[in-house]
Design brief:
Length: about 220
Amino acid sequence: MEEAIRELGAANNSEAFYVAERRVGGLRVRRNGARGRFDLKPFDRRDAGVLVQSLGLDSLFEPFLLPPPLRTLLASVVQAPTGWRVKNAGALTTFPHAHTGQWHRDIGDGLFGNESLDLSLPDYYFAALCPLDETTVEQGSELLLGSHTVLAGGLGEAISAGRVRRVIAAAKPGDVLFFSGKVVHRGMPNPTESTRSLVYTVYTAKWFEQGRDASREMYTG
């Protein structure tokens, strides 16, 4: 793992969201385009590889996947008759002096590659971030509240008009940051000498990613 982190850390910065990745014992390690930021997955029992299973990390991860308040929240926000399921679960690690992450939506280019159409769809993709280390407003997650309905080209005007607000979520262990995959957000830099980590779970409507083996589903509603 340390070797993979060193190799990925040496990759050049890029405007691409991910610049390089390695596989270590079934764990997918990806370097963000901004230096010092890494995404590791999967950690859940359903998809975890040999490394995570051998260290018992899948069992440690289990309480983060579906705490009762999130299960209740998902039942009310996922607007799909098919219900919802856990898509994937992982960890985001930000090393000391890591750069600011890129602005992005978790839905990426969406389902149709048409931003206007994709933002008009009922919400089908959500993320929950659970910090393992306390974060301040200088190093938390920055979100554009209201951006889930605004095209990228109109965000500047919407912010100026007060229709979209920039907020930074400071958090501590035990907190959960839950938001739609349509919300534009980014990770703030880590100016400290300490590594900052959080675990995340992605929830989607069951119809998303058609073709998954339904018999292997463990976390649904």
